[in-house]
């Protein structure tokens, strides 16, 4: 039985254009870019791209980025597309005691 290795994600290093005026070399710098594809409970998928992120990020901040991309995707969708179920962003898991 042959087992194929899983598809691994690779780190993309994108050359920095050197813009922005701050020090930093002749444009040969590398910028780390993280890309996340998130499948939402209503079946819609959004892509969040974080160019040169900080070493740490609060989960609430990441969720805010997902919400923003979701809203942009909803606005950009054509009226002829099938309407997706709305998401309840405020719901949480309730744990029963006992």
From TrEMBL:
Biased composition (Gly residues): 17-26
Region feature Disordered, mapped onto this chain: 1-26, 74-98
Biased composition (Basic and acidic residues): 1-15
Highest taxon in the source lineage: Eukaryota
Organism this protein belongs to: Salix suchowensis
Protein name as it appears in the record: Uncharacterized protein
């Amino acid at each position: 039985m042959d087992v194929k290795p899983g598809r691994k994600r690779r780190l993309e290093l994108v050359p920095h254009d050197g813009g922005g005026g701050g020090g930093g070399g002749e444009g040969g710098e590398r910028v780390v870019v993280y890309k996340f594809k998130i499948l939402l409970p209503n079946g819609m998928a959004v892509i969040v791209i974080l160019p040169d992120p900080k070493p740490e990020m609060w989960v609430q901040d990441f969720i805010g980025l997902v919400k923003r991309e979701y809203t942009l995707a909803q606005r950009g969708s054509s009226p002829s597309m099938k309407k997706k179920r709305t998401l309840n962003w405020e719901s949480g898991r309730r744990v029963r005691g006992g």
